[in-house]
Amino acid sequence: MGSHGNRIAIERTGAPGASAVILLHGGGQKRQSWRRTGKQLAAAGWQAIACDVRGHGDSDPAPDGDYGYDRLVEDATSLIQAAGGRAVLVGASLGGKIALAAAGRLPPDMIRALVLVDAVPRSLESGIARVASILRPPPDGFDSPQAAAAALAATNGTATAPDAGARLQRNMRRDAAGRWHWHWDPRFFDPSHGLGIQPALTRLEDAARRVTAPTLLVRGELSDVTDAAGAAALAACIAHLEIAVIAGAGHMVVGDRNDTFDAILLDFLQRHVPVCGPG
């Protein structure tokens, strides 16, 4: 259950009662984006809890349309409390910024470690603009998932694979008129929520200065959202920050180089956070 009665869909992998790792996806994604990582965490003795951020996937849309950081952090807090009151937070892209905001706001003993995946307060404006263009589709939707795939490929400057629509379909919903839409509440990305770079900069850097838990930033070498300057700015706020750069990965680090990411994540956890089994 999220904050204010908003239901949050989760996918739990591993033994109930084991040390929890809460996985927060990026904007426009779903909990299934963490499935392979969840299996690796479970095999290492962790309990992986991947959620659909409010307004995404199977989680409830916000009845009042509130998708600001305060409400998103309250949802993350509810997940930590449901997992026993302490957890590792791992977040990709916007999910990383939510995790950072939560780690800076909550009591230190609730956050065992923090892992940010291609997420820094000082993101690159051009990369964020590219992502935003994907997340704000036509109000009337698409003729088909394949049409959505073609629009996505055009934004990324790539060709459309013949099976791209079929693979995208799980991330879409069909309305009564037969039009296809992304699975998230379109109100989520309204600028009034303050999720953009400049509106959130002071909040996120202030949160970063309060983080005491072991913290890792994993960024993609080819990312157009997070660069070395953004990583350095975050390191200036978190003196104990560790940084890993994954060669050949873009902004979608977990999808681009999942095995490499999982190995880096598990090594970091092994060095900093002991696993506690059920009971």
Automatic annotation (TrEMBL):
Signal peptide: none annotated. Residues 20-253 form the AB hydrolase-1 domain. One of its GO terms (molecular function) is catalytic activity. Gene3D superfamilies: alpha/beta hydrolase (3.40.50.1820). SUPFAM superfamilies: alpha/beta-Hydrolases. InterPro entries: AB_hydrolase_1, AB_hydrolase_fold, Carboxylesterase_BioH, Epox_hydrolase-like. This is AB hydrolase-1 domain-containing protein. It comes from Sphingomonas turrisvirgatae. The lineage of its organism: Bacteria, Pseudomonadati, Pseudomonadota, Alphaproteobacteria, Sphingomonadales.
